[in-house]
Amino acid sequence: MTLAIFSFLYRDNPIYKMAESLLIGVSIGYTLVIVWSSTLMDLLFKPFFCNEQYGLALPFILGLLMFGRFLPRTSSFSRIPIAVMIGSGAGVAIPVMLEARTLKQISATVTPLITESGFPDLSAIVVIVGVLTTLSYFYFSREHKGSLGISAKVGTYFLMIFFGATFGYTVMSRMSTFIGRMEFLLTEFLHLTG
Amino acid sequence: MRKIETRHWTFLGLFVCIGLVMLINVTVDHPVSAQTQKMYDFIDSLPSGSVLIVSFDHEASSLPEIRPIALAILRHAFSRGHRLIGVALLSEGTAIGYRLMRKTAAEYGRKYGRDYVYLGFKPQYIAAILSMGESIPRTFPQDYLGRSYENLELLNGVRNYDDVAAVISITDGSLTTHWMEYGSARYGIRILSGMTAAMVTTFDPYVDSGQMYCLVAGLRGAAEYERLINYKGGGTRGMLAQTTAHLYVILLVVLGNVIYFKSRRKRTTR
Q1: A115: left (phi over 0), alpha (psi -120 to 50) or beta
Q2: How far apart are alpha carbons A175 and B130 in whole angstroms?
Q3: Which of A30, A161, B74, B266 is packed most tightly, with the most Cβ within 10 A?
Q4: Would the CA dihedral through B232, B236, B238, B240 be positive or negative?
Q5: Using one digit for the tens of pLDDT, what is the confidence trace for B44-79?
Q6: Of the partner residues A39, A104, A179, the one whose CB lies closest to the CB of residue B209
Q7: Could you tell me which chain A residue has the CA closest to the CA of B180?
Q8: B116 bridge partner residues
Q9: Among residues A42, A55, A45, A49, which one has the least CA distance to residue B149?
Q10: Which residues pair with B88 in a beta bridge?
Q11: In a domain, A160, yes or no
């Protein structure tokens, strides 16, 4: 499988296509089995039929309504479970998101710029300058001229550094994956290394 | 026969570089980062027998990078005598997580049910994280092997996150975000993570804000952790290859720029 996938580096070919199809097929098959056993069986059918938890009929019916989308006449029924999902999901997520993604991140950004010993905290200064200038780059209600233009320009440099770092880490990640496969080939397949 | 193009030489160069370096079997000395040290210190400082949840929140495709990290953390936790509860919030990670836990537990003579259990996959990760915060037995009435919660010695007395020291999320995506947003923010459970290097810039702000306790990232993180536990695993073996691959990429970038500027100068002089 590994060699078949690597063969794509030369050109697209039937062996690669076969390996790709096999990978997708196995992944979907495995996921279906896991979802069937751990979701439908464990959470629905077993409790419903064995433990007489008849209240589970409601989520089961809501789930069935989702399939209404496949027919034009019944497609409107699918809006009911979608509405339930969006409503409950938003209700759970909004307060948590506000706390975790906004308030805590703001409080971590606004830290004292002077250390206890009286020296400027360079890290805190870079963070606050980076946040403010990057935000100014995304302010589109005024033309980026004058001080706003300079701030936005500095913001783009921070963005570029972020993109560069992310790209660098991604390259590192892909190389790690490749090294992992190479280790498998050399150690477990060819037994060339211990 | 298709013509050999520049990109083929590029791939071949990388293949040869990494292949040769891996055959040499030399390890590179590397310093341990503060984040990896923090993870090690935390697990090391817990009293023996502490309960940790290890969540395998990754797909099979990232296994080559995830495996050394997960193995290093599991080895350390088992060697310290901690009790581990394995879960998976992505279906593909389910069997992988079980195999990794079983392998490392066997190395340290740990017994299933007493020293570690594997609860398996639970769909709808947000609902699963929230539900475990209320009641782990209600969320997982059975383990991965179909045994009931009551019959697993380790789980006696473990009702929810209050009885767990921390959650270690092994991830290749953004699932750890949900552990922080729902597990940490709502229930106050400490979140640690082992993740692919590609995810570091996403999670760094959460480490700075204290929402995530620490993270071990990529092959380098695995190598650092292996150094701390004095074990030569996939991370340590892969470090020289990774260094070589990075040097190769830098060389290509420099070479590409030289060729580009030379060809541009030629065009302008014409």
Answers
A1: beta
A2: 36
A3: B74
A4: negative
A5: 999 999 999 999 999 988 998 999 999 999 999 999
A6: A104
A7: A100
A8: B84, B112
A9: A42
A10: B121
A11: yes
For chain B, the residue count is 270
Q: Is the pLDDT score of B110 beyond 90?
A: yes
Distance from CA of A144 to the nearest CA of B (A): 28
Q: Do the chains contact at B245 and A179, CB–CB below 8 Å?
A: yes
Distance, in Å, from the CA atom of B244 to the CA atom of B39, rounded to the nearest integer, reads: 27
Q: Do B23 and A35 touch (CB under 8 A)?
A: no
Query: What is the domain count for chain A?
Result: 1
> What is the rounded average pLDDT of the residues B106-122?
94
Mean pLDDT of A139-164: 95
Tens of pLDDT, residues B125-170? 999 999 999 999 989 888 999 898 888 999 988 999 999 999 999 9
CA–CA separation, B154 and B115 (whole Å): 6
Angstrom CA distances, A61 to A9, A57, A66, A148, stand at: 48, 6, 9, 55
Task: Say if A180 falls within a structural domain.
Answer: yes
Q: What is the ipTM of this complex?
A: 0.84
Is pLDDT at B268 greater than 70 in this prediction?
yes
Q: Which amino acid is at B5?
A: E
Residues 6+ apart with CB under 8 A from B62: A177, B172, B196
For A93, A121, A137, the CA distances from A96, given in Å and listed in that order, are 5, 31, 28
> Under a CB-based contact definition with an 8 Å cutoff, are residues A108 and B205 in contact?
yes
Contact residues, A window 114-153, toward B, CB-based 8 Å cutoff: 127
Q: Do A39 and B123 count as a contact with CB atoms less than 8 A apart?
A: yes
What is the per-residue pLDDT across B221-255, written as a single tens digit (0 to 9) for each? Answer: 999 999 999 998 888 888 889 999 999 999 999 99
- Please report residues of A whose CB lies closer than 8 A to that of B246: 171-172, 175
The tokens describing B155, both together, are: 């789980």
Q: How confident is the model at residue B270 (pLDDT cuts 50, 70, 90)?
A: confident
- Residue A140 domain flag: yes
Task: Tell whether A164 is within 8 A of chain B (Cβ).
Answer: no
pLDDT (0 to 100) of residue A192: 83
The answer to whether the CB of B200 falls within 8 A of the CB of B215 is yes
On whether residue A154 sits in a domain, the answer given is yes
The token duo for A132 is: 């403010």
The whole-number average pLDDT for the span B251-270 is 90
- Per-residue pLDDT at B61: 87
Across the interface, do A179 and B23 touch by the CB < 8 Å criterion?
A: no
Under a CB-based contact definition with an 8 Å cutoff, are residues A42 and B75 in contact? no
Containing domain of residue A143, as a range?
113-194
Question: B28 phi and psi, to 5 degrees?
Answer: -100, 135
CB A125 within 8 A of CB A112: no
